[in-house]
Design goal:
Order of helices and strands: HHEEEHEHEEEHHHHHHHHH
CATH topology of the largest domain: Trna Endonuclease, Chain: A, domain 1
Shape: globular
Number of strands: 7
CATH class of the largest domain: Alpha Beta
Number of helices: 13
Radius of gyration: 21 Å
Structural class: alpha/beta
Oligomer: single chain
CATH architecture of the largest domain: 3-Layer(aba) Sandwich
Length: 299
């Protein structure tokens, strides 16, 4: 089941579409000069498959060498099924778009990162047909940013690194400069967004409590904290209503006898946008297929 720590660890690449290239340069992997990067379709389900396959985040970079697809996966524990997925995703995307594909895996602990880096091969032991080696970043190769000036220079990268270091015993020293720097960005919307992003991204960890303690003693204005809390509560209420609405969509489709494919069910269930969920509920009264409802029929 998707949760905020997992979703935000890869979702930040959608918020800052140039983040992936800065992360790659950090691990000494060159990437062609890019003119524009857009968010791509994460659905990697074949029409004949029973099992839905959804990539966490897909970006399409238009580079001087042509288009490149970047698949970003967040992985918080060892799961050998994911090794097969990371071999499948680039093969699927390359077949579909006929362009280079990069797979980036983001981990929050060193053991998982070391496991994810091991090559996964398909074929004979001494003559593999395909070898999958995703680019793995985690607490062992991402920096601990402890200087507020660095946070101001690249806030999205700083927040990303903080989330990746969530289990670091010295996480307080990473979070403190972020709490000091973010309100100084000069853009209240971005500041509040990133403050909330960290809080939700650290959900369920000891680091979240550390973050809230840091906020309570850091000389940022009470207005930021109160507005952040109000917006978080409002967003949580909206997401809860959206979840109930999507369940109604699925129930209505079922009552009308409309088959819901695994990919369509996954897309409907994952929706947290109340406006979209309400639109789907209205359209569920008349559509002839769930793929038509969710837009999968257009892909």
């Amino acid at each position: 089941m998707p949760n905020p720590p997992h979703e935000l660890l890869h979702g930040i690449f959608r918020e800052d579409s140039g983040l992936f290239s800065r992360v790659l340069s950090l691990v000494d992997i060159p990437f062609p000069k890019t003119t524009v990067t857009t968010v791509g379709n994460v659905d990697a389900t074949e029409s004949r498959q029973v099992l839905a396959r959804l990539i966490d985040t897909v970006l399409e970079a238009q580079t001087e060498d042509g288009p490149v697809l970047i698949a970003v996966e967040a992985q918080n524990k060892q799961d050998d099924r994911k090794l097969r997925n990371w071999a499948y995703y680039p093969a699927y995307l390359h077949e579909r778009r006929n362009c280079p594909v990069v797979v980036i895996v983001v981990c929050r602990d060193v053991k998982t990162a070391e496991w994810a880096r091991k090559p996964y091969s398909i074929g004979l032991r001494h003559r593999p047909t395909l070898v999958s080696t995703p680019i793995v970043v985690g607490p062992d190769n991402l920096p601990r940013i402890t200087d507020s000036a660095q946070v101001v220079a690249d806030p999205y990268f700083a927040v990303f690194c903080a989330l990746a270091h969530a289990h670091d015993p010295e996480i307080g020293g990473i979070l403190e400069p972020i709490a000091v720097a973010l309100p100084e960005l000069g853009n209240e919307g971005s500041s509040k967004f990133l403050l909330d992003y960290i809080d939700r991204g650290l959900e369920g960890t000891v680091a979240q409590e550390t973050w809230r303690k840091v906020l309570s003693i850091t000389p940022i204005t009470g207005r930021y904290r109160s507005e952040l809390a109000m917006e978080s509560r409002a967003e949580g209420i909206a997401e809860g209503i959206a979840e109930g609405t999507t369940r109604s969509v699925l129930r209505l489709l079922n009552r009308r006898g409309i088959n819901v494919s695994p990919a369509a069910r996954a897309r409907i269930s994952a929706c947290t946008d109340l406006t979209m969920a309400e639109t789907w509920l209205d359209e569920a009264l008349t559509v002839t297929s769930a793929d038509e409802l969710t837009g999968l029929a257009e892909n």
